[in-house]
Amino acid sequence: MTDRDTxxxxxxxxxxxxxxxxxxxxxxxxxxDRPDPALAGSAxxxxxxxxxxxAGPAEPAGPAGxxxxxxxxxxxxxxxxxxxxxxxxxxxxxxxxxxxHGAGDPALARQVLAxxxxxxxxxxxxxxxxWLAAHPDLGxxxxxxxxxxxxxxxxxxxxxxxxxxxxAAQIExxxxxxxxxxxxxxxxxxxxxxxxxxxxIRRLAGRAGYRVCLSYDVDSxxxxxxxxxxxxxxxxxxxxxxxxVSMHLGHPGTLAALPGVLADLRRxxxxxxxxxxxxx
Length: 280
Known about the structure:
The chain contains ten helices and eleven strands. By secondary structure, the protein is an alpha/beta fold.
């Protein structure tokens, strides 16, 4: 690609990342992270009056790459170098991280936070940028209560299918908003529509300042809306010390399941902490 071509792609990206989300809507279903159905069929206002369309169905999970097991000698990403993908923390400590895709009804999000706080749990919310732009108070609410806010792209497209300039823009635009709202770009980046990152995503996430692409080893399947009992049973069957659990804001079934999930963790002696605390 020539310098002129690169500048053209960058201009098109800045003018309309909603086009990338539209392309994502054409992708076929597969395993891994799913867009929140609450985003479907609605446009969310972005800063400056731009809007982004609904995120599409998920793509198959990309290549796992260097998924590093949780152990005390895991390699650390060098500043400015590619991020390291982590799917779990150390198995030697009685801690787990409950991580939430940040999108959907803000009232449900506030209730999830309140339930967690009543139980003494701290969560990690990986926010979709357009959602955070529409509800900036939630970003401050999350961080102010001792939870953790991270980056889950700007519009939640099928990230692995985008050209490099658009991948970079998806990461950096959300990063910049999180930074403006909270004074920090967020501790982690999580790729959208895929459980695992790709080498390109890790390289661009590292360039954007993130040392970790945060994956997960427990998919609660709450995005399928199977009912609270099923969500609780799925987490209970798969969670263990060091687990990173993937859940979603904006789903009533997730809110209803959360007290049972937290009670089960407490019975097992597992403490819900932020991903940063878990990873050490």
